[in-house]
Amino acid sequence: MTTSKLAPAPQGSARSGTLMTISAMLFVQLGLALSTGLFEQLGPLGTGWIRLVFAAALVLVIVRPRRSWFTRSSFLACVVLGAATSGMTLLFTLAIDRIPLGTAAALEFLGPLAVAVLRSRGKALLWPLLAAVGVVLLTEPWTGNIDPVGVLFALAAAACWAVYILCTQRVGDELSGVRGLAVSIPVAAVIASIIAAPATIPLLTWEAALAGLGLAVLLPTVPFMLEIQALRRITAAAYGTLTSLEPAVALVIGLLLLHQVPGLLPVVGLVLVIVAGIGVERSAGRTASPSTLAPVEPGTASPADPASASGADEAPLQRDELRTGEPT
Hints:
This protein is mostly helical and 328 residues long. 70% of the residues lie in helices and 2% in strands. Keywords: Membrane, Transmembrane, Transmembrane helix.
């Protein structure tokens, strides 16, 4: 029997995790900006459904999952991640059908912000709080008329996003590469199909299907692959704070592609979330990177820790540190 002994995290892993998270945001916002025509033809639920279905097909072709990859625990974690992914996708599209996009984005951000606050300690709490102020200024939720049902949809999407963050980190820790997505995205597609397919299939055309395939690459395939790798390198708290950059990314893309010129308050908010992003990047590293795991026989010394003679006893504590990003 062997156990996993953690080696020290590679130098620069926190920075690479931060860059992956920001890159994922760019793909998400670009995908949303290019989804306008598909929203008009298929509606919000239909657009979310077709993206998930094509994303599931792409991931299955790319990853080619094997049963031997999964334990019962890791498989169930992937299923929960898939349910959270589907809920996050569909509930947010329902929210923006009823309330302004900025308001919905601010409300949905409460999910990752809650993760950041619950996982942060001491001075680290400054960054999520600063980011929260920035997001409010960026989105200016007070400027829109609030539909209570839309607010509930956005808050439900926020809860799904929080579960998504925690499950993505666990799946990324237990399964190498992007193997977990080979279960989670198909599960999300099945759930979305049950909800949205009956009303959407009659509206499909070849043009809409091809557009959906292209959008599935931008959102969610590439972002999810980046995020599952990022959460192996940074803490859930750091990721939760970094997501505050997403409204800022949306503002920049809106300016460049949609010619939406921001006012003074959104610009101030942009500065605040950038400062928060820089601050969290400096303390984003995790205890170790799962990619450096190597089997070690119980009772033998590890090259990374020559003094250790009880690796099997210490490993469970180290994996708890890895998953939470905090000492146990």
